[in-house]
# Entry
Amino acid sequence: MQLSAKELAQILNGTIEGDPEVKVSRPSKIEEGGAGTISFLGNPKYEDYAYTTTASILLVSQQFEARRPIKATLIRVPDVYGAVARLLEQFGGGKQEGSSEISPLASIHPEAQVGSGVTIGPFTVVEAGAVVGDGCRISSQVYIGKGARLGRQTTIYPGARIMHDCEVGANCIIHANAVIGSDGFGFAPQDDGKYRKIVHVGNVVIEDDVEIGANTAIDRATMGSTTIRSGAKLDNLIQVGHNVEIGENTVIAAQAGISGSTRIGRSCRIGGQAGFTGHIHIADGSQVAAQSGIISSIEEPGQTVVGAPAINYKDYFRSFAVFKKLPELYRKVNQMEQKLKGGES
# Structure
């Protein structure tokens, strides 16, 4: 597929600087480029590549001011990363395409309900009482447990498991080998030092427009529901404990871990490998830096926290500035002690 700068500007709500008829057939990274490709400048760190890229079209922000001539045709857009998302959809990076069909190698229980226009791949299992909404696209080797429900136009990639009684909303994406509804980590200590397993009889509820990354595990609730609110985006390899609630439009990067019964608010941004203790509340709009450890609630909305235990980022960097000086301070204190000892003798 080829698109001209003029056509792309209309799709992306942008303005053109350069040749409106130049055509591109695929996207490229700005440092690689190539004739007939379109790239983007979203991070100022990559600005030098804008002057050397061989891409035919370059997406830039409306505020970008070039310091040197740029050979590529520019398309200025209000939001570069939003435009890139739409661009990749145009070049086939969206949901799975293809005709709707159910593989004869899939196992679908007679008491399951499968909507119209559904695709189900080979070796997928759909158990009794499960409901698969219209237009769902379910890959091979997926497991849909008893009584589980999938909303319309949801995509499930290979090897994902939607366990019994769990609910996934409309327009969701569940990536390969994610597990929705595994047992929570709950054990009661006994007098003899052993542990008795606590049966988890709740479920997981995932609302509309949620994306769950590969190998992410979301535990079912002890009672009630573990809830992922609409628009939330979870990266790969995330652990979500039982009875956790993740608010609308919150994004969480890879390898984060959230202990049971923690509530994370709306529109939060959580960095990779961040860890949360259980039974705390994270206010709306909180930003948690990568590898931070959250051991108490964040009550004030919109805070940015860093470190383990995490504190306000301004306090953290002030403290870190002092921490870096500790070896020199120790050396000076040691010299003063030696001088004092010398004076006493």
